[in-house]
Amino acid sequence: MRALPIRFKPGRLPPGLSFWHPLALLCTWFGSGLLPKLPGTWGSAAALPFAAAIQWGWGSGGLAIGAVAVFIAGTFAAGPFARMAGIKDPGGIVVDEVAAQWAVLTIVPLDPVLYLLSFFLFRVADIAKPWPASWCDKRLAGGFGVMADDMVAALYAAAGLFLIRLALPW
């Protein structure tokens, strides 16, 4: 993606985009991606109460549908946001963390310990970006590229969570 001559500052919205614009609200997950330092961690944390509410009301199937819906919406929203920012994958975009965190949570019951464990495992996988997440991060562009590496990291986190659940008496 060609960088635009815009001075985008992390923790701020791209020029010309207000906080209340639907694109900004979705991409920053209601502003959590604009919090200081570690926006991906803030976005993943902000995903948890929404996931709990969805899972409480509609179960893991409802959460899976929500993860797919947020992934699709994020794919369409992240591209324009990134173009406005002039950066391939601005840190303020955390809708990718939300979709991926929800995907990981679909394999556990609504349990605070398992939610925290899934949060930790996803953050480790997202930061480490094991292959092919690292490949997606480097090679894929646009909104799909922003979203894809986190979903691949979610697969690693879900696999780790599954193995831990097999080993422990939950």
Describe the fold and architecture:
This protein is mainly alpha-helical. It has one domain. The protein has six helices and no strands. α4 crosses α6. The chain is globular and about 50 Å long. The N terminus is likely disordered.
Structural class: mainly alpha
Shape: globular
Number of domains: 1
- What is the average per-residue confidence, as pLDDT, rounded to a whole number? 92
Residue ranges: pLDDT <50 for 5 or more in a row?
1-8
Query: Main sheet?
Result: none
Radius of gyration: 16 Å
Number of helices: 6
The tally of beta strands, per DSSP, is 0
**Percentage of residues in helical conformation:** 55-70%
Task: Summarize this structure as a short list of keywords or feature phrases.
170 residues; 6 helices; 67% helix; globular; disordered N terminus
Topology:
Elements: H1 22-27, H2 39-85, H3 95-105, H4 112-128, H5 133-139, H6 142-167
Helix pairs in contact: 2-3, 2-4, 2-6, 3-4, 3-6, 4-6, 5-6
Summarize the structure.
The protein is mainly α and 170 residues long. It is built from six helices and no strands. It starts with 21 loop residues before the first helix and ends with a helix.
